[in-house]
Structure prediction request, 370 residues.
Amino acid sequence: MPLNTRHTLQGVALALLALIATGSLAAEATKAQDAKSTARPALTVTTVQPARADLPLQVAATGSIAAWQEASIGAESGGLRIERVHVNVGDTVSRGKVLANFATDSVEADLAQARASLAEGEAAAADARQNAVRAREVQGSGALSQQQISQLLTAEKTADARVLLLRAQLLAQELRLKHATVVAPDEGTISSRSATEGAVLPQGQELFRLIRGDRIEWRAEVTSSELARLRSGQPVRVVSPTGAVAEGRLRMIAPTVDAQTRNALVYVDLPVAAMRSGGFKPGMFARGEFVTGRAAAITVPLEAISLRDGFSYLFTVGADNRVKRLKVQLGRRSGEQVEVIGTPLKGEERVVASGAAFLADGDLVRVVAK
Prediction:
């Protein structure tokens, strides 16, 4: 076969192969386009736009609930037997309410003896006073020696001093009788009781503990780097382990910082109703937020956030109804809205409002009106 004819046949063959390849590529492209146009949405979703809101700036902390002041009520007289106890732990009492009574038989006997001794001492003092008056009248007349006169005058002073001593002893017995009735020094709730009927207690033995005025406080630990953001009088939202919520006020910041933890204690006054409702009790561990100001934020509904592998994501819907996954960080919360940070949201995007947990990056969705 001539060389020119061979070259011509090879060219024709190459041209035919190129034509076949081009046709195959076109067919594949058409098939892909058709598949794309007939793809079924992975999920039907509703969308929302990110909202701009003015949210409070907060400092989060944890700490314990404690009584503002817990009064210790003890036995002021020793050696007496408790005759009756009128209150128990948890009882709410008013100022002056009788909490317990001691037996007063021995005290009344000692009181009667002290009164008799005082009467005897006053009689002796009156006699000594008359003798001293006579001694002064005859002083210088020679009827009595100077030594006798001095003795009578001294006896008068001694008798008067004894009367003062006996009066003090009588007052002490009257106080013992008064202290035989134990009363509440303030209103509040009995938090502890060690008084038992029939027990004979020494002086100073604790009988009860009283939460004064039912006033409690939250003692929170705050890092030293956040102390500069706190001021006395700032509102505080405290949440107990039971889910109860109380609005308190920052009363005081401790003057020192713990050298080990680098945290400082702050004291937050809680309303009396917080304890009386049962939602807050001394000894509970609670969390809370200090409101330090307000600042603008971009928020989305909390249900639009998907948690995967310890990270937070949301999905935006493009013009072709395909979703794009964005990794975000969560900030402040306000009701069902949460601040998103770490992503360039402008507020015009369409964000998947629900069902984000079932989507993957690039999925086709069908958007319906909410």
Q: What stands out?
A: The two ends are 77 Å apart (CA to CA). Residues 104-176 form a domain with the Helix Hairpins fold (CATH 1.10.287.470). The chain has three domains: 55-67+215-367, 69-102+180-212, 104-176.
